[in-house]
Amino acid sequence: MIENKSFKVFSGTATRYLAEKICASLGCELGNMTVTRFADGEFEVCFEESIRGKDVI
Length: 57
Fold this sequence. Notes:
The protein is of the alpha+beta class. Helices cover 19% and strands 25% of the residues.
């Protein structure tokens, strides 16, 4: 288990299962985020928690 939690792990839509397994191995929680897809194929990612001062993976 990682004691220094100065990082957050987030997942794209295609890799959620892998990210959950990695988080289980590291002893941390998967970060909360939402992905909004637009009709023209673009998308927007919004982090639902603070990532200030953290390393984001």
